[in-house]
Model the fold of this input.
Amino acid sequence: MGEGGTKSERRKRLPSFVRSVIASRAVDRRKKVHYGQVVPIEEVESIFGFINSVVRLPCICRQATVGSEQRYCYGVSMVSQEQSQFTQILRAIDASYLTGPDTSGLEELSKEAALGSLRELEKKGLCHTVWTFITPFIGGICNCDRSDCSAMRATVTAGVPVMFRAEYVAGVNPDLCNGCRQCMRVCQFGAMGYSIAREKVVIDLGKCYGCGICRASCTKNAIVLNERSSVPLAAHAW
Done:
């Protein structure tokens, strides 16, 4: 992960057409194995509605960028807690697996506890994302920020989109917005602006990823999430 960050910095110095070719190939590879999409808390709740087990585990991105264990990642599975030994699968594979998966370092949580923790992380300004582990199988929920998350840095800073936008885009009700600009402080994508003339926050729809973190920070309930397909300026931006 650390080497990947170094390579990303080097790519910034390459000609733009070379960067675009490298980025396209990198994204194609990631789509086959491990890529993500931003999801607001409502969609996290929907995902939790059909999974059966949750574990919290250290974030490999933060291990590389911060150099310490930070438990911002949540592994999810449709296998029930009672069937966590994967007995049906184990019958068909090598006998050395009969003791079950290595779960050391995994912190089992109830779905309710995990959702409560995710809501707290949202209040701190972290963006929820859902990830495939060998596409199309969903394997985890992460909580990202641009300073420490390698995937978000690759997507937003380096122009290699391995994390795609949510099915939503934010909107501001000017009648409720008091211009406090708290939402601007937590936006990870630089999508929030401020109109001095109107003393209101405005949203750059071309940059908005629809994560809903701005909404969570708004004390006046002035921000809503609209379906991306219903907003012409954002409908085809992924």
